[in-house]
From TrEMBL:
Pfam families listed in its UniProt record: DNA_pol_A_exo1 (PF01612)
Protein name: 3'-5' exonuclease
Principal cellular location given in the protein's record: nucleus
GO molecular function, one term: 3'-5' exonuclease activity
SMART domains: 35EXOc
Amino acid sequence: MLNSVTRRLTSSPSKQSSLLASLDALDINEGEIKPASRRTARKLKSDGNDTQSQSQYPRSILGNNTQNNALDKTRRAATISTRQQASPVKQNLRLYSYKDYPKTCIVYTTHEEEANELIEGLCPGAVAMDLEWMVNFSGSAGQRERKVSVVQIADNKGVILVIQINNMRRFPSRLQALIENPDVAKVGVNILNDGKKLFRDYGILAKNLVELGSFALIVDPSPVAKRKIVSLAKLVEHYCQRILEKGEERISNWEKPLSKKQQEYAANDAHSSLMVYNELLILSRIYSCSLEGDVRSRFTSNVTWPLENVAAELDSSVEAVKQQHLRAYNYWHKKKLSLDDMCRKLSLKDKGYYGPVSTEDDMALKPGTVITYIVSALKNNPQLEFQLTELVKLVQMDLNSWSRHSAWILKQNGV
């Protein structure tokens, strides 16, 4: 299949003969699909900068400014991305699968440290980002949205990370840094709403979010639709000549260990988003589209603080700060203790306050409990000093604490 990019390039005999000559000179072999394992993290970290030799994608779409103006190289990139395609007959389109792309692999992890290592191993440049969470359907209450359970990240080296975060102690710090990095584009569909959900659930302020539908309106004279948000399935069909299947996995339980089908569903969503973005980048170079300044603001967005007007859940009582809460505040604000140290120092379990103690008992408090102590002290005594940025960092160190305390924190920022 010749996609929309190649059909435009082959509209004249002279361009067509030039492209055919380029194709004959290319040596395109389909690579192997890498297996996913925990050791992949260290391998990715060691060779993450070697994008030229290992990338499955043309060098000209990886953001190298020295090549962006070379139209002949861009045209070659267009032919490479459509090398094995045939005539676009809709009913005969194949299902989209990341496995059709050489040297592509899924790495699925449920471990915070491994997730951080994997993020370090990603190749430089834009990434695709997608989220999954479980939706409850219950009687008159209707749909009930739960927290984000899975974050997918795909890079231009063929690595697709499927990171299940719901059982981690905290949101992986390097994943958060990637999402909040204004210099790294995160591409997807309805991606600003995904960014807002990350803020609601975990207090993350996503930056440089690229909406694929809006991007298509700028770079493609014949976009699939004349609107800013277009379904990923339509974009994949139009630009990749594939059918993106949306099966029952879409509303499955994303909080349990993921099945192979769930992993592949999640991987296809992220990988296909990046492939659409790459096709749109090619179009932007063919038609010499300016993507900076005011134009950039038409397809990128940021989640800013404060996000929205959230009613504060203030305590109605003016009772004195509990002694244990004040101790927690002093350990945090004045002594600058780590959260782990505070959990140990504030525990009263070793004094028998909570029944018999055995050698197998965990003497430390839960991180969420200590964070609640500190926030409670600040709520009940407005004279206590603190820096809002430091409080946000503390609350984000426990996966469930942000949703518990975000309403009050937002109120302190004047929302």
